[in-house]
Hints:
Radius of gyration: 18 Å
Number of strands: 11
Amino acid sequence: MREVARHDLLTVAPAAWGPLLAQRPDLDGIPHLADWAARGWPVIVRRRVPGEDGALVPAGLPLPPSLGKRRIGLALPPEAVRPRRGVTLAEARATAPAAWHPVLDALLAHGAIHGRAPRVFGGLLWQALTGLSYLSATSDLDLLWPGPVDEAFLDGLAGIAARAPMRLDGEIGLADGFAVNWRELHAAGPGDSVLAKGLERLELRPVPALLTALPPAA
Length: 218
């Protein structure tokens, strides 16, 4: 399997799902979990925690708020999973609350201007994938924007966030699989560093290395 990064989606082979759950008696009886893979629902790659087996793929899934929003961590053999394409904001738009749609449209237009199409993660992703209720009136919108980006992109994103009915969170993905929080990058000065999160570790990255001048999208 190709190298994976945080927020990547993985499809688990249904034949492997049952044996994996059998090794986790703490997960017995949790609604939706037994047939999760059979329904075609994916898991998401997370950061590896210290002490985990490096030969296994760190992944997980969140339960909906009605089940306590528990985050279930998994460590999967590479042969049991295959990569799955992420869900774009445009694809997930119809699943979002109607009150969000003007902001989602503004984000899509902003991305088009800068040649950047965001993927969703967090509650909107899981609601779009499963049809279960993950969003509430207080939910955040989590987006993963492909980098690099420039200051104008971040300024525009901050302007949209300032008038949004939800908190606009998310990250800027980097070419090496790391990602940085967009708000932290926007607030940082040219002499600052921001925290970058990768699959295996955290790093501080200087702001100038994370910003670039972008030509307008064609």
